[in-house]
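Rather than argue in generalities, we have chosen a single entry, letters for residues, whole numbers for local backbone shapes, without further comment.
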Amino acid sequence: MGEYEMNLVYDQEGVRLLKDFKQDLRALSATLKIKNRMRVPPYPFLDPCEIPNSMIP
């Protein structure tokens, strides 16, 4: 999901879009973490941090 072993995006617009996408995933992850504190049991499966090859460390 946006993480590549090699840099495959070179044009400025593509770099900007990829950066925005990564920021959106971080925001989504933060929102899901907050919501999961109130869920019993928590549902972490759609959190971008939990998805293999995700772009959030």
Observations:
- The chain has one domain: 1-57.
- The two ends are 12 Å apart (CA to CA).
